[in-house]
């Protein structure tokens, strides 16, 4: 029996399940209305599966956008796979739910940020001892970086989506 209830880890799992359910609904019914997602994930997670050239370009984290075109969306209890378009080149990705750092739907000003506390050396703690905190976001403060676009578009700023 543990000495305390690990609320952070329980909330972490529940909110990752929320993302899973949202993606399952999108798989079954498509993206409704103006909904779209910015998903930032840790490319160093051992179960992430992306093309080598994407791993070289985004060695620590990457933000993808699911909006106008995506294909082959498949969801499991551990993660999801999707094919996205990078400069007119479809690329399959596998993103474990544990690797997700942020999940934002700017159309309704909803977002989640998953943060891990680090030990004294700056290394992430093991998941079993990780006191993960989850924050509900209105919209992240920074511009979206590392979003490969289908064309030579500018980096997307989330400022235009902020509530005034």
Write a short abstract of this structure.
This is Stringent starvation protein B. The chain is α+β, with helices and mostly antiparallel strands and 164 residues long.
Number of DSSP-assigned strands: 8
Number of helices: 2
User: What Rg do the Cα atoms give?
Assistant: 16 Å
- Helix content percent band: 10-25%
Structural class: alpha+beta
Major sheet size, sense and barrel closure: 5 strands, antiparallel
Name the shape in a single word. Answer: globular
Oligomer: single chain
Cα separation of the termini: 48 Å
Mean pLDDT: 77
Q: Which strand order do you get reading across the main beta sheet? A: 2-1-6-7-8
Residue fraction in strands: 25-35%
Topology as H/E string? Answer: HEHEEEEEEE
Which regions contain 5 or more consecutive residues with pLDDT less than 50? Answer: 117-158
Pfam family, one: SspB
Biased composition (Acidic residues): 117-144
Region (Disordered): 115-150
Organism: Cognatishimia activa
């Amino acid at each position: 029996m543990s000495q305390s209830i690990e609320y952070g880890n329980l909330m972490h799992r529940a909110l990752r399940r929320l993302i899973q359910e949202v993606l399952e609904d999108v798989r079954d019914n498509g993206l409704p209305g103006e909904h779209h997602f910015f998903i930032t994930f840790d490319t160093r997670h051992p179960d992430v599966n992306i093309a080598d050239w994407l791993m070289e370009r985004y060695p620590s984290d990457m933000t993808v956008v699911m909006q106008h075109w995506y294909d082959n969306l498949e969801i499991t209890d551990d993660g999801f796979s999707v094919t996205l378009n990078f400069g007119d080149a479809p690329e399959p990705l596998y993103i474990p739910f544990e690797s997700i750092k942020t999940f934002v739907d700017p159309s309704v000003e909803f977002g989640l940020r998953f943060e891990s506390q680090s030990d004294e050396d700056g290394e992430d703690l093991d998941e079993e001892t990780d006191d993960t905190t989850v924050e509900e976001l209105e919209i992240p403060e920074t511009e979206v970086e590392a979003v490969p676009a289908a064309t030579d578009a500018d980096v997307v700023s989330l400022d235009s989506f902020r509530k005034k």
